[in-house]
Amino acid sequence: MALSTKPWSLVRLSLSALPLARRAQRSSRFLPYLSASMPLPCARCYSSERDPRESGKKVVVVGIPNPFTWARTKMYFFLIRAYFDQDFTFDEFATGAKQAFVHVSKMLSQCNFIELKDLVSKEALEELEEKCLALPINRRQALAADLEEIMYSTPGDVGIYYDNQGRKFVSIIMRYWYLTNVDLPDETPEGTKVFQVVFGDESSKDSKRLLTANYEFRREFTLGVEPDWTITRIQHFKLLE
Fold this sequence. Notes:
241 residues, alpha+beta, four-stranded antiparallel β-sheet, 6 helices, 22% strand, disordered N terminus
């Protein structure tokens, strides 16, 4: 199958030789992670991994994956393995991407941009710095995602590109749904809904806001280039717009 080609100019990024997850761990330690699986092309209900009997807390999130997007991402993952990297697996990628998402979101909430230079592209970081510094404190705090509060993650889109010099790139957009107790306006991301967050028994209830974020990860697959993923675009809906 022929791969599509389109002109695309990129500023060469300064990357380290460490894999994505290990690069994020250089400045922060992460909790164990259960890798996400590809969603089935139908309506599904997803719940938190925690045992309600132990935490007294139960969250149910409803999402409706797009069948076209699901089929398209499966095809592109096959092309990546066939043409670029035979060892590529989505689960392994998703593990590093999720750890990077947690670390980067926390650094953004603290406006600690120095810690992000090895993980986020220069162009994206300049735009984020301007937006983050202009945010109210509550919205800035809501950027931070805790690993245990991520309810669901899924690939949003996958792209394969060539530039005018023949360099090969792959981009993967990961979408995350996470809970926060930061006080925000009563808005719910499109396509999702939090039914209830219960602490203790039914007579004692508390609620959290469900937020969603898109992180685009890009890697150059040109022969001889370090195999590093870099975040090139970050969207926190209702927060960074």
